[in-house]
Amino acid sequence: MADLERRIAVARGEAPADIVLKNGSIFDLMTGELIVGDVAIVGDRIAGVYERYEGKREIDVTGKVIVPGFIDTHLHIESSLVTPFEFDRCVLPRGVTTAICDPHEIANVIGLPGIRYFQEASEHTLMSIRVQLSSCVPSTHMETAGAELLADDLKEVMGHPSGIGLAEFMNYPGVIYRDPEAMKKIRLFEDAHIDGHCPQLSGMDLNAYIAAGIRTEHEATTAEEAREKLRKGMRVLIREGSVSKDMHALQPLLTHLTAPYMCLCTDDRNPLDIGEYGHLDYVIRTLIELGSPALAVYRAATLSAAEAFGLKDRGMIAPGKRADIVVLDSLEKCNAVIVLAGGVEVTDEAFAARGHVAPVGRGSVKAPQVKPEDFRATGNREEVDVIGIIEGKIITEHLRETVPIVDGDKAPDPDRDLSRITVIERHGKNGNIASGFVKGFGLKAGAIASTVCHDHHNIACVGVDYADMALAANRLSEIEGGFVVVRDGEVLAELALPVAGLMSLEPFEVVRDHLVDLRAAAASLGVTLEEPFLQLAFLALPVIPALKITDRGMVDVTKFEIIA
């Protein structure tokens, strides 16, 4: 019997299902009721619900709650610091059965081969990975990336089954001022989904941005900002990543009225935070703890997410839907007991049976060897622009401080929490080195450096000792990228990320343990930030207000221009 006919027969009780979840409390996303019944599964689909079914395999879930698989509506798998296969193994057991990813981190390093790597990986993972096509590689003209993707390049990777549309359009000035290449990309995806990215944009400029056909927004950091974007027809994604933490600010907006138009995402979240707190499961239980109705939260995590991205085959425990199912201990605790992805129970054996794709992007760190004197800040003006960190946010303050010039250099001042920040071009294009000041790390000694440096992924280094900064930066070339912490000429901790300088080849548990050591090493330098490495990475992203730095200099993002 063909799959379609068999599924209908099972739904009518004429034939046994492949799997039946027996006697669980199914969470009805229409009414909010918990209704005891069975869920019958045939292949990768749900055949029947609520009624009594028989199956070739029956799993008793009495006393447990059955909900649809969670959908992370915007993330960069590279920011988990592991390959898509390890991300699958790390996150899927927590109930995230669909991940809508933008591979623009790896695309900024190696271009189309990076996107193809994710597309091919999506064919083998148990989780459903949907690969949006990266819209802004590089994110702006004010940085040096390893690749550039134009509209004609994107045509080459369109049409893959994992695709939905165009990923976050970060160059919002390019949209509102009708840059020809931006218009060409948008026209290419006019009939498809286009993700948004427009922090603090409002008024007529926001209208212009949305008028281009852009449908979602994950950069809202206040309830007021999110409310305007909802009113103007955008789906707002509540983000809670390792650095970008907007959940508490946006939670009051998530109600029964708004839930159909709000979703959840993590954007950038590493294995240490996933291990300590969780992934979307953490966001769900925290939103409920903060007072959002459970029905609104689970809708945002499942059905609303599916509808926002046109995924008509998932998001409910209902006949004909994809069998992405999470069995929970309770709605409030949101601890996954059993997870099925496309009808496959998530087990170690299921992960072992997957296919794999060889990693790409080895040998991508081509930075020049640097010397301590390369980190000096010259100039004849004592007033300097300073990046002010706001912990838990990727937006920054644009501060100004007076730094005396001594022997032709404006040196770091740990007593005032003024650290040197330097970006070194690492793609072998021009060898640019740009330096400035940052306030908010709390550094008293040493240096930390990283090749995770959004979105161009050059080397970012922050420190108060030039020799240690040089050692940290040069060490990154030796280990093919990653994170390094240095003090007094000694490497205290490091994590190698040889896949495009972004992802480890190790299991996520090993990466998590290295991150513990790195955080401890950073704290020993006086660093007060909970997540200093991703915080550092976002200081180089020139599409997030207010002041950032790239290999070409300090960038005033509000003016969208290099100022030093």
Automatic annotation (TrEMBL):
InterPro entries: Adenine_deam, Adenine_deam_C, Amidohydro-rel, Metal-dep_hydrolase_composite, Metal_Hydrolase. Gene3D superfamilies: Metal-dependent hydrolases, Urease, subunit C, domain 1. GO terms for molecular function: adenine deaminase activity. Its EC number is 3.5.4.2. Residues 65-334 form the Amidohydrolase-related domain. One of its GO terms (biological process) is adenine catabolic process. SUPFAM superfamilies: Composite domain of metallo-dependent hydrolases, Metallo-dependent hydrolases. Keywords: Hydrolase, Manganese. It catalyses: adenine + H2O + H(+) = hypoxanthine + NH4(+). Its cofactor is Mn(2+). The keyword Manganese applies. It is an enzyme of class 3 (hydrolase). The keyword Manganese applies. Residues 394-561 form the Adenine deaminase C-terminal domain. Pfam families: Adenine_deam_C (PF13382), Amidohydro_1 (PF01979). HAMAP family: Adenine_deamin (MF_01518). Belongs to the metallo-dependent hydrolases superfamily. Adenine deaminase family. This is Adenine deaminase. It comes from Celeribacter persicus.
